[in-house]
Structures are given as C-alpha cells and as structure tokens.
Amino acid sequence: MVTSFDGGRSVMRRAARVHEDYRGRGIYRRLEQELENYIRDHCPNAQYVSICKNEKDHMFHSRYLAQDFHQVYKREGTQMLVKAANIKSLDSNDHISDHDMIQTRAISADELKLLIRSEEIKKKLFPDNRLLNFYLSYRPMEENVRHLICERGGAFVSLDTDFHNINDVRNRDFQEGNDILPGTHDKYDIKEFSHTPIHVSRPPKGSHSNSQPHQQLLSPETINNVAMVTFYYCYPTAGKPCYFFDAYAKPGLRSPGDHFRSHLRENVLTLRKFFPDQDAVLPLTFDPSIPRDEVMSGLSEVGIVDEKPDAEKWQILYERRQRY
Ligand SMILES: CC(C)(COP(=O)(O)OP(=O)(O)OC[C@H]1O[C@@H](n2cnc3c(N)ncnc32)[C@H](O)[C@@H]1OP(=O)(O)O)[C@@H](O)C(=O)NCCC(=O)NCCS
Q1: Which of 72, 161, 165, 304 to pair with 242, CA 20 to 30 A apart?
Q2: For ligand 1, what atom is nearest to the CA of residue 25?
Q3: Which residue among 35, 54, 75 closes a domain?
Q4: Residue 58 domain-assigned?
Q5: Which domain holds residue 57?
Q6: Number of domains present in the structure of the chain
Q7: Do 282 and 216 share a domain, yes or no?
C-alpha cells in the first residue's frame, strides 16, 4: 500500500505481505511495480518516496539502494508483550519517586502545532527533521498533526524547568492549594533541585492526563522547556491489540530515565483505558539520549518484562527523491 504524508509531499510504500505458499514467484516484484505506477500517476505532488524496514530486513538493503533509496534515519527500539495481570498499580501515591515529580500531560493538536512552529525546540527534539512513529515517517509539519493527534493516537509532553523557575513553581503550587508548601519540600526530596532541573509539581491525585488534554501545558513561554515528547497510536487486531509508543528527548537532558518513566506511566494508563484487562503488544522506539537500560528498567518497574521473541531492535527509514 502507499500512504501520503507531509501534506502530499511524501509517500510511503509499506505493509507488503505475500502469502507463504506463494512467495518466491515474483508477486512482490509485480506489486512493487504497480505501487510505483500508482505513485507516478496519482501522487503528483510527491517529492519523496520512503520505506521503513527493520534491521532483519537487511537483505533488502541492496535492493533499495539499487532503486535509488538512501538510508536517512533510524530509531532504536524493541517490542514488548504487555501482560495485563502483571501491570503494577499506577494510581498509588504511597511511594513518590523522581519521575512522579515530573508533569507529563497529553497535548492538544494546537499545542503540537505550536511545538512544530517553534524552530528552536523542533531542532532539538527532531534534529533529523523526522519523526518515525508506528513505522511511519513524518516530517515535523503542521500538516501531519491530524495523523498524530487523532481518535487512536496522541502525544504527551514533559517540561524541563530550570532552577530559576523553581520558586515560581513552588509559589504557584502553594497558591493553587496543592500539597507542596514553600519551604516544606523535604518529603519530596527537594535537595535534588539544585542539581536536577526536573521536578515541577506532583500531579494532583487521580488526575491522570491520559488521552484528553485537561490543562494547557504548552505556551510560547514554556515551549522551549519541553524535555520529552512521546507519541502513541493503538488499535485492536485479530490477536492482541497493538500500542505503539515513540519517545523523543531533548539532547543533554539530565534525567532522561525519569522523564521516560513519567511518560511510560501516562502511556500505560492510556493503553489500559483503550484495552482494559487485555494483554497487548507494545512496539516502542526511543532517542539515543534515552539509554536502553533505562527504558528496560522503566518498563520492568511497571510490570512489562517480556520482550517479544525476535523483537526488532531498529526501525530504518529509506527515502528517494521522486523524479518525473
Ligand atoms: C517480502 C515478501 C513480500 C516478498 O514477496 P515475494 O512475492 O516472495 O517476493 P518476490 O518473489 O516478488 O521477490 C521480489 C524480490 O525480492 C527478493 N526477496 C524476496 N524475499 C526476500 C527476502 N526475504 N530477503 C531478501 N530478498 C528477498 C527476491 O529475490 C526478488 O528479487 P529480484 O526482484 O531481484 O529477483 C514476502 O516474503 C513476505 O510477505 N514476507 C513477510 C512480510 C515481510 O517481510 N514484508 C516486508 C516488510 S513490510
């Protein structure tokens, strides 16, 4: 199939499948030719054609190079099996750890557009000018927001607030009647504040942001403090439902593992909301600045411990400039 993104400027060739009994007879070669004909005849604005593969499809690498595709981007990841019975309760406030101090919120389509319009933060979060979410390639363009914030998909952000803002946040928390009082932060380990830019306030009990944005977090004032963005997209299948989860972090973030854990919590709550009590498959990708061991320990802390056998570890994007 072909799917178009970037307002029609890019098309993806994807999801090729030939029944096992009919492989090796040239069916895919014929399909590929038909897709190319279709792109030529029906996608007049396409400037780029792309294909996403995993590292196991390396035998196709030379085939695509011969078709003028180039590798333009790759993302590290894995695929986990989520067992509903093993998921830890995420509602408990008994134990407050660093990632509980980070506010992670669902953002609206308008907030994502604001982020995309902000060149400075966009370059930090998406330095390759790419998103590779759910095995699909998007340039960070406003035209793509409708694919990303939709019925079965959304995005979360967390902020990295520098030390100068901490008193503002403390005072705001106090004024808003939250349970963190100025000068009485010891129980939340505020000694870390002088070293750690993360913190912000603990979300009010029971107010998980999952799915529906409930309070605007992004504004022209806060936009450059975005530390991490995660995207999700999910759907039921004939087997287990699939929940795709892709994390982008600002390079040099001092506590990427804590931000990741905070985002993971929101995403697991979202997964449970869509598919209560169901096991699921969780393909995920993460930026190089989020170490794999932090990802795996974060997953394990919420009860996601089973990596899919033969899980793909890389998503690799190839692209070709379209010639007419
Ligand atoms: C990959 C797949 C679509 C190929 O379908 P197919 O009809 O058997 O392929 P064809 O017989 O048309 O072969 C097409 C070309 O691909 C090559 N090819 C086929 N399978 C290949 C593989 N696993 N690795 C490398 N090359 C392969 C063939 O040698 C042939 O090359 P040629 O054109 O230079 O002669 C099929 O094996 C399949 O459905 N696999 C499972 C799903 C999958 O991996 N999809 C691709 C990623 S979305």
Answers
A1: 72
A2: 11
A3: 75
A4: yes
A5: 2-75
A6: 2
A7: yes
pLDDT band at 48 (very low <50, low <70, confident <90, very high): very high
Q: What is the mean pLDDT of residues 302-320?
A: 96
The CA 73 to ligand 1 mean position distance, Å, reads 22
| Closest C-alpha to ligand 1, atom 20 | 24
Tell whether 323 is covered by a domain: no
* Three-state secondary structure string covering the chain: CEEEEHHHCEEEECCCCCCHHHCCCCHHHHHHHHHHHHHHHHCCCCCEEEEEEEHHHHHHHHHHHHCCCEEEEEEEEEEEEECHHHCCCCCCCCCCCHHHHCCEEECCHHHHHHHHHCHHHHHHHCCCCCEEECCEEECCCHHHHHHHCECCEEEEEEECCCHHHHHHHHHHHHHCCCCCCCCCCHHHCHHHHHCCCCCCCCCCCCCCCCCCCCCCCCCCCCHHHEEEEEEEEEECCCCCCEEEEEEEECCCCCCHHHHHHHHHHHHHHHHHHHCCCCCEEEEEEECCCCCHHHHHHHHHHCCCCEECCCCCCEEEEEEEECCC
- Pocket of ligand 1, candidates 18, 54, 55, 61: which has the most ligand atoms within 8 Å of its Cβ, to mutate? 18
Instruction: Quote the ligand 1 centre to 74 CA distance (angstroms).
Output: 22
Atom of ligand 1 nearest to the CA of 24: 11
178 is a domain residue: yes
Q: Kindly report the pTM of this predicted structure.
A: 0.84
Q: Tell me, yes or no, whether 47 and 160 share the same domain.
A: no
List all residues whose CB is within 6 A of at least one atom of ligand 1: 15-18, 23-29, 59-60
Does residue 5 surpass a pLDDT of 50? yes
What pLDDT is recorded for position 103? 86
Pocket test for ligand 1, best of 2, 13, 23 (most atoms within 8 A of CB): 23
Which atom belonging to ligand 1 lies closest to the Cα atom of 31?
12
28 CA distance to ligand 1 centroid (A)?
6
Average pLDDT over residues 45-65: 90
Looking at the fold, whether 18 and 87 belong to one and the same domain comes out as: no
pLDDT (mean) for 79-92? 89
